[in-house]
Design a protein that fits this description.
The chain is mainly beta. It is about 15% helix and about 55% strand. It is globular. The protein starts with 5 loop residues before the first strand and ends with a strand.
């Protein structure tokens, strides 16, 4: 695929303190996806890249950014599109 047919997402997974990202430790990943990828594909790839496959949680989407709050954990995953 050419660069025009894909886009990149930068993702971070970190701990929280008081519900806010703390960055005591952080795991980062860059994901390349085809244009027109479904929300399911996007969230699945983000979770796989950050090692969160199998964790249940709550997703929040805001345009070109996503946030994942795993249930029962003081952590957060954040991702955003970078063109």
């Amino acid at each position: 695929m050419s660069k025009k047919e894909t886009y990149q997402i930068e993702a971070e997974y970190t701990d929280t303190f008081g519900g806010e990202p703390n960055y005591c430790w952080v795991k980062r990943a860059t994901i390349e996806l085809p244009q027109g990828a479904s929300l399911h594909t996007i969230t699945k790839r983000i979770r796989k890249a950050l090692g969160l496959t199998g964790l249940r949680g709550r997703w929040e989407a805001d345009g070109d950014s996503w946030t994942f709050h795993p249930y029962g954990m003081c952590t957060i995953a954040m991702a955003r599109v970078v063109y």
